[in-house]
């Protein structure tokens, strides 16, 4: 019986069934054409490429079904729904249905239907919903909200048992009175967001109505008298119904059970009188009204918990507000409240959790508000705050949200002394106080701030003494003594009783024989030797009838041999237990027990034969010994049992109890790799060459061999991540024994094509061996074929590579569907398959519970995750359920290959799949899509589906084997031992004296003179001494001369600087090498410094490529000495990052170091040239570190200490001046505290940056 028949609930939300119908039509046409050309061969079932609903017809016990966002359009409803006779709840939310008439006879087809939800569809007319739908006898809940209905559906009044009706967000203008005449049991009614102008008076007949929602309807002239007759009403929503004081029903106070009232978005100027009389009110919403006076509020709602007064015209809050002792949420934002408008006693609201007073005119808040101990959210944005109470620091520690943005004049008061010291210890584990620093420098221990000395309380001591002298003390002591005496007597009596029992047992044992002293296990052998046999055999005859009885060992247990023909015919692969029963002259049973060992029997049978022979003796209570008989060495007494005719045959009937370990069958899996820099995405593909696309990388997993196919147009980051994925699979799943092969496109190996074409499979991984197995393996000879399977495994045959096909069919923007996680839930006799809600549509490891079993449809792969604490039966049910639901999941099982089926003409792949010879191949591929994995042994493919699973290999490549042996493996213990002592003396040391401007310019000139070609003053350009390179499209190119000294923060650069080498080591070397040479040879020695500059927003990929690919070759080239080959030149490499440049590096640019935003390749793009650009000039410490950095053009970034350069493009100048011009404007803004020299520097930099773009006046 199929497991799906036990399903009681199924959630299929997010599975698209739209394309399955079109695909079936195309495949039928293709099959018909193919059959005609092949002489009408027998047709086979079409392979299921898109999810289909055919499996639903087998779910005969289904009670609830969710088809949310499944691509149902127009009148199409799955016909399999008509087979679900026990269906009670049907959800069709978020589809494009225009009619439900495709199912005929709803009461007969779905007689158990209780709830139907058809929210957010395209139902327009009242005839789109069949009238017989409401004739279902059990129908209780109807939801047709968020459609385009203009009238009530036909026949809705026939649903007399209706309890909940939702028709909100439609265009209904009139409600028929017949609805409330017949449906009198309604408990929930939602008619909000329609065009109702009145309500029928028959609404008062719904005496059980508890929730009524009428929001956003033009009910200006409706008096709503029928609403006041609903005595059971608890929730009333009149938001946006044009309520005023004159059309609020005066009888509203008769709704004594009313808990929630919404009067927002109306025209109320004060709180209506009937509302003040609602004593049980807990939630009141008066937002978006015209309230200006709340003087009538005097604490009339003792149970009120939620009050919303936002978006009104309130100047002050009434003092009666503080009498609402149960208030938890208070919203008064977007009013005109001042400090005096908040009651000073607001601190009495001890249960207050949310206080929102944003967008008011508050100067500060009352100090009593800081005494609300349960406050979690305090929002004071966009006010006129000047300061806050000092107690705000105590409140901030318990707040979850504290917002004071857009208060420009706010000054937070300083922290109290007791909090100032704690802040440093809490956040940095450092006490920043001066006393603590001085104490640390003197070497004294730190004071323990947690030790608190409480003063002695003499009054409390006197009270304790008086309590001890009280009258009740003597009585308590007396009771304790009596209890101890009684316990001692009982213990003495118990010891005497045990001694007496031991003496009696000893006396009984002394009278027994020595055989009786042997303790026999208390086991029940009835189920082993007395089994249920056919009716012609007497039950329980073991050892009762004289003769011979025989048992053979089968799966660790004895099995009775009843056939008389087999007795005397033993098999050498089995072991037997034989019982001979005789009757003595004294009419007493005498037993003789043998166990016979076959020469080819297994060890477990031999051991169990000896054990069960002893068990048989204990079962019969016999006093004899068991006798061992081996094949070929039987005793004469044993042979006499069979009249001297003992026959031993080859073979065995019994099975061994151990599990048969069979060789693994290699099932190759093919994955396509794509994604972004942050996350790698994986999708399963059919194992065929038609799946290859040159824009992607592919991973072929053949267990012992991993092949990474790299397309010629694939991204390098995906190639790197694919190699890392293969490393993880090899290390974590294959014990590091799997081989990794890189297969570039057009240079594939023969083994790769042999696996792709299906003509060869590699050998499986060898079984893991223990230490004892390894020792035995050393002793065994090498001619054992079982131990050398990899050696004797046939090599890959010569496979003919397939002919070149089009490998550009999957678009680069192809995306996997959003993953779906199913929770397999099991009850008594039923299964349910709901979906787990995903946060932001991403899978998280936190969603997996170890007691549950989950089915994960990642979009291109199906996984079954089994928690370590889940039951065995639940795992089995989940596995069977996943196999039978393969027609529904995974949704994109071809990983993008299904795009070929949407073409007008059937492609090669379509013809391949529809061919009869390939149906078995398609079924094998479908079965391989399911990957079971248990908790703690998840595969890497499964882990890659989650956003927070481990990504990196936990390998420390910096440690040697000697280091691991000496210091251990745990890095945390090593870091704890090597934890350095905190040295804070540098924090208290005085700063170094900064260089003066003259000294900085002098040092800059000296460093530039060390270059082999010193630059001219204030001229920065490329030369033989300074060269600047940038990486473009994977190659390092020389920067244009006009862009020399200008850097982009999203790129990386190489600056090569050549200096004269004045090192003493080189001089000594030259003198010892050739003292007679001219000294000019020594002076020609140079050294090269290669600076690698990395922008703040640049990727580390350029640095890795430079470090592992370019550096070695560059060092070899730059170290060549053209004059003396034996003396190489010195080459030094330095990596510098933005804002962390070396001072000598900056000196070469003579204060003209420019940093742009963006990429170098976009330097001449119109999008960059046509926007406003803003740069600021600053120097950190001295003039050498002067930088000109581009920032966002905003007034907020202006600082009076710096000088700014602002370029306005020509098209904006034309708009501002209201005349056409082709000149851009460049402004130099000088701060009041900036250096006077920066102005000249700014003019020079402006000409350097913008002179090539356009002509401009300098303003």
Model description:
- Among the domains are: 18-52 and 816-841 and 848-938, Severin; 417-447, no CATH class; 526-649, Severin; 669-792, 3-Layer(aba) Sandwich (Severin); 996-1066 and 1082-1161, Severin; 1164-1259, Severin, CATH 3.40.20.10.
- The chain has 31 helices and 46 strands.
- It has a 21-stranded mixed beta sheet, with helices on one face. A six-stranded mixed beta sheet has the order 38-42-44-43-45-46.
- The model is unreliable at 36-46, 422-426, 449-454, 532-539, 771-789, 903-907 and 1064-1079 (pLDDT under 50).
- It is extended and about 135 Å long.
- The protein has 1259 residues and is α/β, with parallel strands linked by helices.
- The longest helix is centred in the middle third of the chain and has 39 residues, at 472-510.
Outline the secondary-structure elements.
Layout lengths: L6 E5 L6 H20 L26 E3 L6 E2 L14 E3 L4 E2 L8 H4 L5 E3 L23 E3 L20 E3 L10 H6 L5 E3 L20 E3 L21 E3 L22 E3 L10 H4 L6 E3 L20 E3 L20 E3 L22 E3 L20 E3 L12 H5 L4 E3 L13 H12 L5 H8 L16 H11 L3 H39 L15 H4 L17 E8 L2 E4 L8 E3 L3 E9 L5 E9 L5 H18 L5 E5 L5 H5 L6 E3 L19 E7 L4 E6 L11 E5 L3 E6 L5 H18 L5 E6 L5 H7 L14 H9 L9 H4 L27 E7 L4 E3 L19 E5 L4 E5 L5 H13 L23 H7 L4 H9 L2 E5 L5 H4 L17 H7 L3 H7 L7 H4 L8 H13 L16 E7 L2 E4 L7 E3 L3 E9 L3 H10 L6 H4 L2 E9 L6 H18 L11 E8 L5 H5 L5 E4 L9 H4 L3 E7 L6 E6 L11 E6 L1 H8 L7 E6 L6 H14 L9
């Amino acid at each position: 019986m199929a497991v799906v028949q036990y399903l009681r609930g199924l959630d299929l939300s997010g599975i698209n069934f739209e394309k399955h119908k079109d695909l079936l039509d195309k495949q039928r046409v293709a099959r018909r054409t193919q059959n005609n050309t092949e002489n009408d061969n027998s047709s086979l079932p079409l392979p299921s490429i898109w999810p289909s609903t055919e499996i639903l017809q087998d779910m005969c016990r289904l009670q609830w079904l969710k088809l949310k966002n499944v691509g149902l359009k127009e009148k199409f409803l799955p016909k399999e729904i008509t087979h679900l006779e026990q269906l009670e709840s049907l959800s069709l939310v978020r589809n494009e249905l225009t009619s439900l008439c495709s199912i005929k006879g709803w009461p007969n087809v779905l007689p158990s239907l209780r709830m139907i939800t058809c929210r957010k569809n395209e139902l327009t007319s009242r005839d789109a919903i069949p009238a017989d739908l409401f004739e279902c006898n059990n129908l209780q809940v109807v939801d047709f909200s968020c459609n385009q209905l203009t009238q009530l559906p036909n026949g809705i009044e026939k649903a007399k048992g209706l309890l909940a009706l939702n028709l909100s967000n439609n265009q209904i203008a009139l409600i028929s009175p017949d609805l409330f005449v017949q449906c009198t049991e309604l408990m929930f009614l939602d008619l909000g967001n329609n065009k109702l102008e009145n309500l029928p008076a028959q609404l008062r007949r719904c005496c059980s109505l508890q929730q009524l929602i009428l929001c956003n309807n033009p009910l200006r002239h409706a008096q709503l008298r029928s609403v006041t007759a609903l005595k059971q009403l608890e929730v009333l929503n009149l938001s946006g119904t044009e309520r005023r004081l004159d059309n609020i029903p005066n009888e509203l106070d008769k709704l004594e059970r009313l808990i929630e009232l919404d009067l927002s978005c109306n025209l109320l100027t004060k709180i209506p009188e009937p509302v003040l009389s609602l004593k049980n009110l807990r939630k009141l919403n008066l937002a978006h009204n015209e309230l200006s006076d709340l003087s009538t509020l005097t604490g009339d709602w003792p149970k009120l918990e939620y009050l919303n007064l936002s978006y009104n015209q309130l100047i002050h809050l009434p003092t009666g507000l503080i009498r609402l002792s149960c208030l938890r949420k208070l919203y008064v934002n977007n009013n005109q409240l001042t400090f005096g408008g908040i009651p000073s006693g607001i601190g009495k609201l001890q249960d207050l959790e949310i206080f929102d007073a944003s967008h008011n005119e508050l100067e500060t808040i009352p100090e009593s508000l800081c005494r609300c101990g349960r406050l979690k959210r305090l929002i004071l944005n966009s006010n006129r705050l000047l300061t806050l109470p000092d107690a705000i620091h105590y409140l901030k520690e318990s707040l979850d949200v504290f917002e004071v943005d857009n208060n420009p004049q706010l000054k937070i008061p300083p922290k109290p002394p007791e909090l100032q010291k704690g802040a440093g210890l809490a956040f940095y584990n450092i006490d920043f106080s001066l006393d603590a620093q001085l104490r640390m420098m003197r070497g004294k221990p730190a004071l323990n701030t947690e030790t608190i000395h409480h003063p002695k309380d003499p009054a409390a001591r006197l009270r304790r003494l008086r309590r001890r002298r009280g009258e009740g003390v003597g009585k308590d002591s007396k009771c304790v003594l009596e209890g101890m005496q009684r316990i001692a007597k009982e213990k003495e009596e118990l010891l005497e009783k045990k001694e007496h029992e031991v003496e009696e047992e000893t006396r009984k044992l002394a009278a027994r024989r020595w055989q009786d002293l042997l303790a026999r296990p208390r086991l029940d052998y009835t189920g082993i030797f007395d089994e249920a046999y056919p009716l012609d055999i007497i039950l329980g005859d073991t050892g009762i009838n004289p003769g011979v009885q025989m048992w053979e060992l089968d799966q660790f247990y004895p099995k009775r041999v009843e056939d008389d023909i087999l007795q005397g015919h033993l098999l050498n692969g089995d072991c037997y237990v034989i019982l001979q029963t005789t009757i003595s002259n004294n009419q007493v049973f005498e037993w003789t027990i043998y166990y016979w060992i076959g020469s080819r029997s297994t060890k477990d049978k031999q051991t169990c034969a000896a054990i069960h022979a002893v068990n048989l003796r204990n079962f019969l209570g016999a006093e004899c010994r068991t006798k061992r008989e081996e094949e070929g060495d039987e005793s004469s007494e044993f042979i006499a049992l069979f009249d001297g005719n003992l026959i031993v045959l080859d073979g065995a009937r019994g099975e061994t109890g151990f599990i048969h370990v069979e060789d693994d069958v290699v099932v190759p899996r093919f994955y396509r790799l794509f994604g972004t820099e942050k996350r790698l995405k994986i999708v399963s593909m059919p194992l065929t060459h038609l799946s290859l696309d040159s824009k992607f990388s592919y991973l072929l997993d053949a267990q012992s061999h991993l092949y990474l196919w790299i397309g010629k147009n694939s991204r390098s980051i995906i190639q790197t991540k694919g190699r890392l994925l293969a490393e993880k699979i090899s290390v974590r799943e294959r014990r590091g024994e799997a081989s990794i092969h890189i297969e570039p496109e057009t240079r594939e190996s023969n083994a790769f094509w042999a696996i792709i074409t299906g003509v060869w499979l590699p050998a499986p991984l060898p079984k893991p061996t223990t230490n004892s197995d390894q020792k035995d393996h050393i002793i065994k000879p090498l001619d054992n074929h079982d131990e050398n399977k990899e050696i004797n495994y046939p090599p890959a045959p010569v496979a003919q590579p397939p002919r070149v096909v089009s490998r550009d069919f999957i678009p680069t923007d192809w995306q996997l569907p959003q993953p779906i996680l199913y929770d397999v839930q099991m009850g008594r006799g039923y299964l349910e398959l709901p979906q787990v809600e995903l946060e932001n549509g991403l899978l998280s490891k936190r969603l997996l519970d170890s007691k549950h079993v989950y089915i994960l449809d990642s979009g291109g792969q199906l996984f079954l995750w089994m928690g370590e604490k889940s039951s065995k039966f639940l795992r089995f049910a989940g596995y069977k359920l996943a196999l039978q639901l393969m027609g529904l999941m995974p949704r994109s099982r071809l990983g993008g290959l299904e795009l070929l089926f949407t073409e007008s003409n059937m492609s090669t792949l379509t013809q391949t799949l529809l061919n009869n010879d390939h149906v078995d191949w398609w079924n094998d591929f479908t079965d391989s899509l399911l990957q079971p994995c248990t908790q703690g042994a998840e595969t890497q493919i499964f882990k890659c589906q989650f956003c927070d699973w481990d990504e990196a290999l936990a390998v420390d490549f910096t440690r040697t084997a000697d280091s691991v042996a000496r210091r251990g493996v745990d890095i945390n213990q090593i870091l704890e031992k090597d934890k350095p002592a905190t040295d804070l003396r540098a924090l208290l040391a005085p700063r170094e004296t900064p260089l003066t401007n003259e000294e900085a310019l002098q040092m800059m000139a000296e460093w530039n003179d060390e270059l082999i070609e010193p630059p001219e003053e204030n001229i920065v350009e490329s030369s033989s001494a300074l060269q600047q390179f940038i990486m473009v499209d994977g190659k390092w190119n020389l920067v244009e001369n006009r862009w020399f000294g200008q850097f982009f923060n999203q790129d990386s650069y190489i600056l090569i600087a050549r200096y004269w080498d004045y090192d003493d080591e080189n001089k000594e070397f030259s003198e010892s090498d050739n003292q007679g040479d001219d000294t000019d040879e020594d002076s020609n020695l140079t050294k090269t410094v290669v600076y690698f500059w990395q922008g703040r927003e640049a990727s580390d990929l350029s640095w890795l490529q430079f470090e592992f690919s370019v550096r070695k070759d560059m060092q070899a080239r730059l170290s060549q000495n053209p004059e003396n080959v034996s003396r190489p030149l010195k080459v030094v490499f330095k990596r510098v990052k933005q804002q962390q440049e070396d001072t000598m590096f900056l000196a070469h640019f003579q204060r003209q170091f420019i940093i742009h935003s963006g990429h170098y390749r976009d330097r001449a793009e119109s999008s960059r040239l046509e926007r406003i650009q803003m740069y600021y000039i600053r120097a950190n410490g001295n003039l050498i570190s002067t930088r000109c950095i581009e920032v966002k053009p905003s007034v907020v970034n202006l600082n009076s200490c710096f000088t700014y350069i602002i370029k306005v493009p020509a098209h904006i100048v034309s708009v501002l001046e209201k005349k056409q011009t082709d000149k851009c404007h460049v402004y130099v803004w000088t701060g009041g505290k900036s250096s006077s020299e920066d102005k000249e520097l700014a003019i020079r930099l402006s000409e350097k940056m913008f002179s090539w773009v356009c002509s401009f006046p300098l303003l």
